[in-house]
Amino acid sequence: MELIGNRIITDKIPNELDLFVLKFLKILCKYTDYIIISGYVSILLGRSRATEDIDLFIKPLKKEVFSRFYHELMQNNFWCINTENENEILSYLEDRLAVRFAETNTHAPNFEIKYPKDELDEEAFDNYLSVVLKTGEIKISSLERQIAFKRYYLSSDKDVADALHIEELFKSKIDNEKVNKYKELIRLKRK
Amino acid sequence: MKIERTLFLKPGRDNAQERENFVKFWANYMKTVDDLTWSKQQNVLINSQILNIREFYKNLLKTKEGREVLERLRKERIKVRKE
Question: Are B25 and B10 in contact (CB under 8 A)?
């Protein structure tokens, strides 16, 4: 696994979770931009744990575009586990609430998608990395952002371990000043 | 056949230290082998979870009671979100 510029290139064998993510992203990408954040990022980068959800920010969608996205998801065996009413799903998103999509008749693993709620969330789109797998590319938030949110905002044992994994794996490539800047932004905007 | 090992896991004094040591050990192990080697091991863990979940839901769909559980779960999720 190698970090070159804003790309992480890996020969890892994609697992069932990676394939599930790529299937969802193939549809999502046709309609809007996205950034994957939180736990799945560490797992994609090799952390030895499982998860039941994949968190991502998506850029806001117009009603008719959302409708097409939603219908393509339905046609590809996904469902929204919050409601079947597409207007309701969109209103949740517009209220800055997360909605979850899973494979039809299952609840996990699922995609927790949400719109950015402020500048700090939106910033994730400006500083992202592309993880290049043999089977596709996945956009994730920057390593520094990932570490700062896991260590200083979410802070559970699992989250701190996720941060530690990234710190150990990319030790010499982590910009600690950037981590501290995120830490300060989190203190100002989230606490 | 002798297997060459250069990395060893340091035992922790408590659960937290044990977990931290393992996370560091695993990340450093990843750097000593190619991606195919570590990902095969990671995939055992992740694939088994996904396959177990899929099997669980497939079995639920086979019975009337199971389908009712699924429907209740779906409704409860909506309720949680609306509160």
Answer: yes
Structure ipTM? 0.89
Q: Which residues in chain B land under pLDDT 50? A: 82-83
Residue B6 lies inside a defined structural domain of this protein: no
Least Cα distance to A99 among A89, A84, A109 occurs for A89
Query: What's the domain count of chain B?
Result: 1
pLDDT of residue B3: 54
User: Any idea which fold A2-142 has?
Assistant: Beta Polymerase; domain 2 (3.30.460)
Q: Are A130 and A5 in contact (CB under 8 A)?
A: no
Select from A41, A61, A43, A53 the least CA-distant residue to A112. A53
What is the SS3 assignment for A7? strand
Provide the domain limits for residue B45. Answer: 15-82
Residue contact B78–A83, C-beta within 8 A: yes
The domain limits of chain A are: 2-142
Q: Do A161 and B42 touch (CB under 8 A)?
A: no
In this prediction, what percent of chain A has a pLDDT beyond 70? 99
